Amino acid sequence: MIAREYISPEEFKRFTKTSDLKAIGIVAGNWLIVAVAFALAYFWTNPVTIIIAMILIAGRQHGIGGLMHECGHNTMFASRATNRFVGQWLAAKPVYEELGGYARGHGEHHRLAGTVTDPDRGNFEAYPVKKESFRRKMFRDLSGQTGFRRHKEIWKATLRIFSKDAETRKAAHPYISMWLTQIAMILILHVTLHAWLYLLWIGANLTVYMAFIRIRQVAEHAAVPDALSTDVRENTRTTYGNLLERLTIAPNYVNFHVEHHLLANVPCYHLKELHETLKARGAYEEVRIFRNYLEVVQHVTEEQGAPQAMPPLTAS
To answer: What are the extents of the domains in the chain?
Structure first.
């Protein structure tokens, strides 16, 4: 394993050690921003605050989805049961996901990354694309076309509860509990502020959220030096990102994606320190690390040929 060449066993234990206090802080911080966005739209209702609130909510939906990802790896909290509970009820269900199915699929992505059988390969294998193509993709996201397709599939899966086949009905149960979670959110909003604010939640999920996800997925694996390399530094990308990008496109340290693929059992709140340690010890001497996501988008939308990339790494 590449990371073991640069960090000691003692450091490995430190990097992989969970902190419930840090985890609680991150979970609470994500939901606090959501609450602030709802309050902003409620107390100062106008087109500008609605747009700002939707951007903030979409960014936190992205962050909450990231919490599902962390809990799916069982790295957020020390207890597996706590990871399951938080990952399901405070992360997956609110953003129209199901922890178990997501965790299984994502585990395959880690196992098969750098191969043609990576289940996530469809998200990035077509890159680089022309700027016009990328603009069309972003328009479909921001106009709700991508999100409506996703929600249509969720509703189709939900309606299987009326199937005559017992196994098919059982497979629909997670979707029923997901919608019950949405109803609970509406009731909480009704009691605290106003139920109409839920329109911002689902509206953001259908539109801005999808655009944020696309940019993040592209940044992680698209137009990398060698998508079929077994070296994570060649098939995965880390991007630093500015404050606004970390609030929207790259929440909860998800931008340190090389580090996550190198050591998937490192909690997200240790990834930045792991990155700095590996960089200081020369692990990234031949690796291009982008300063922000605008640079990445420019990189993956080159008009002619493959985008400029660092040469393949020599074997260690």
So the answer is: 2-300
